[in-house]
Amino acid sequence: xxxxxxxxxxxxxxxxxxxxxxxxxxxxxxxxxxxxxxxxxxxxxxxxxxxxxxxxxxxxxxxxxxxxxxxxxxxxxxxxxxxxxxxxxxxxxxxxxxx
Length: 99
Fold this sequence. Notes:
The chain is an alpha+beta fold. It has helices at 13-19, 34-44, and strands spanning 6-9, 23-28, 50-58, 62-67, 70-75, 79-86. It has a single domain, classed as Alpha-Beta Plaits (2-Layer Sandwich), CATH 3.30.70.330. It is elongated. The relative contact order is 0.25.
């Protein structure tokens, strides 16, 4: 198993509203399991207690590009998204503290 279970935080408009409820989204390795994701978050962010982990595999999208009369077709890569719910009494994660 790769030592990089968590790749990056997944920040969109919807996920910023979920952060107020204590739910945080991350892009994870496709082979990562829910217990591995839970352990990785609790190790990376000290004082955080994970109560629930939900995962979703987001498929890649088709992309087309027209170049010199020819059409080039391809796909973007898919990824695994994990939505992690934290204990409301414990510590919360602040992604924007350095901004």
